[in-house]
């Protein structure tokens, strides 16, 4: 196995190095690194979209059952994401540090142990979240949601309790494979799972007439199918013979080290997810709340879709940085960060162009209301700014996971969103009477703080100390 798996062997003779430097593109960005990251990012983006589409398909099928069912499925899906899925996604982020650095250092046997320790931790976390999901209806009523919609949301959430465990295990498996730069099979598995889900949901809802419960149960079944397919791939493939040595009781010794990174990683992710959901709730308190809530919902959906693309670059940054640090290649780790940041800027500019010229068409896909389309045109420049900032911080968050800075990123998100972003959003919206634009302006202030803090953390990083710690661990295992 190579210690720099994403790029393979980067050994090039002096003539090739000089030729790359002499080209204008080589002076702007390391073309070899950029191409490798794009080859890595594209499959990760596709995979993320397929898995993101699974619950979305169930919501769409629910919408054909009636308005209450649509509202219940939409609310239930938000509840599932905020209280459970975001949390277990964050927990799996600890593997991006541990597995990535271990793989780069050649400590292949530790990857399987880290994976198993993360699966143990995910089982416990999913069990706790399941208890919360059982009481979905009374909790939503406590939050003053409409009773019929709350009942429908609870009916949509409960059948997904088994699926929560599958989703948590799936995220762990995805990180384990991602940090070994195994990406193309992930696209195939996710595409197959998505196609299976569409067919299964149609069968349960339209053919068997199981309604909202059928649409929700389809999510659980699909997630278990996806999880078991991926697990079978890991167990049966010779490719992972060095990183997977079978189930071992030794994995329990690694639960605590894994939890030390997983807990702040979960907090980091949840703080950001919750901030966007809070904006939607606050929008409901504004004058003309129907328009305000719809407008903020369009903005957050736009931001989420853009972030799915950013996620691919963040995954590339996390993998490259952790692998190269593990291998002791500090300069290559720094270069990977530099290239990914330049790619994120390019990504941000692309969004600027698309949204600047196509904001009317985009808004019309969400709503047929001329008022909402017109209002979105007004707020579009702010959405563009937030997407550019989110693109940068998404990549820097990937760097943070690769280096093991989850605790710093979690603290950054807490301060940026809840001590700066949300208070300013409320002040601008209600005190200055800027309404929806005020809410989004406050969010931008939070994103500026977040991005700047992550830049400072990245610039001031003692890369050599991180690499030295990995090499000491490597030496303790008797690996040269």
TrEMBL record:
One of its GO terms (biological process) is xenobiotic detoxification by transmembrane export across the plasma membrane. GO terms for molecular function: antiporter activity; transmembrane transporter activity; xenobiotic transmembrane transporter activity. InterPro entries: MATE_euk (IPR045069), MATE_fam (IPR002528). Signal peptide: none annotated. The chain crosses the membrane at residues 49-66, 78-99, 111-135, 155-174, 186-205, 211-235, 343-362, 368-389, 410-432, 438-459. The keyword Disulfide bond does not apply. Pfam families: MatE (PF01554). It is a multi-pass membrane protein. Keywords: Membrane, Transmembrane, Transmembrane helix. GO terms for cellular component: membrane. Coiled coil: none annotated. It is found in: Membrane. The keyword Iron does not apply. Belongs to the multi antimicrobial extrusion (MATE) (TC 2.A.66.1) family. This is Protein DETOXIFICATION. The gene is LOC101765701.
């Amino acid at each position: 196995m190579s210690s720099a798996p994403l790029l393979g062997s980067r050994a090039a003779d002096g003539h090739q190095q000089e030729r790359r430097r002499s080209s204008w593109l080589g002076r702007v960005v390391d073309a070899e690194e950029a191409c490798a990251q794009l080859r890595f990012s594209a499959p990760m983006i596709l995979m993320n979209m397929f898995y993101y589409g699974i619950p979305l398909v169930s919501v769409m099928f629910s919408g054909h059952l009636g308005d209450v069912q649509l509202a219940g499925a939409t609310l239930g899906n938000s509840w599932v994401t905020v209280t459970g899925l975001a949390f277990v996604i964050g927990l799996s982020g600890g593997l991006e540090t541990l597995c990535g650095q271990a793989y780069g250092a050649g400590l292949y046997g530790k990857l399987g142990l880290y994976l198993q320790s993360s699966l143990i931790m995910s089982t416990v976390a999913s069990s706790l979240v399941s208890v919360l999901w059982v009481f979905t209806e009374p909790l939503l009523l406590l939050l003053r949601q409409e009773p019929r919609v709350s009942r429908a949301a609870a009916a949509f959430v409960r059948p997904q309790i088994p699926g929560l465990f599958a989703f948590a295990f799936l995220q762990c498996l995805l990180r384990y494979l991602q940090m070994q730069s195994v990406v193309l099979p992930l696209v195939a598995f996710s595409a197959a799972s998505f196609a299976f889900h569409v067919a299964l949901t149609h069968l349960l809802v339209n053919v068997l007439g199981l309604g909202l419960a059928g649409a929700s149960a389809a999510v659980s079944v699909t997630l278990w199918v996806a999880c078991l397919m991926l697990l079978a791939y890991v167990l049966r493939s010779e490719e992972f013979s060095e990183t997977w040595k079978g189930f071992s009781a030794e994995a329990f010794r690694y639960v605590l080290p894994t939890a030390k990174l997983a807990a702040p990683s979960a907090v980091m992710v949840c703080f950001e997810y919750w901030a966007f959901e809070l904006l939607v709730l606050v929008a409901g308190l504004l004058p003309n709340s129907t328009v305000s809530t719809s407008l903020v919902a369009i903005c957050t959906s736009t931001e989420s879709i853009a972030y799915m693309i950013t996620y691919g670059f963040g995954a590339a940054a996390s993998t490259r940085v952790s692998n190269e640090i593990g291998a002791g290649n500090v300069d290559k780790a720094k270069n990977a960060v530099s290239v990914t940041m330049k790619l994120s800027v390019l990504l941000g500019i692309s969004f600027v162009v698309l949204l600047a010229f196509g904001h009317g068409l985009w808004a019309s896909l969400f709503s047929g209301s001329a008022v909402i389309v017109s209002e979105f045109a007004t707020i579009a420049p702010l959405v563009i700014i937030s997407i550019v900032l989110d693109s940068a911080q998404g990549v820097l968050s990937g760097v943070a996971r690769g280096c093991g800075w989850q605790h710093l990123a979690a603290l950054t998100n807490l301060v940026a969103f809840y001590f700066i972003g949300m208070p300013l959003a409320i002040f601008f919206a209600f005190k200055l009477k800027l309404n929806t634009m005020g809410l989004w302006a406050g969010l931008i202030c939070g994103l500026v703080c977040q991005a700047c803090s992550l830049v400072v953390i990245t610039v001031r990083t003692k890369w050599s100390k991180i690499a030295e710690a990995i090499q000491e661990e490597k030496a303790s295992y008797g690996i040269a």
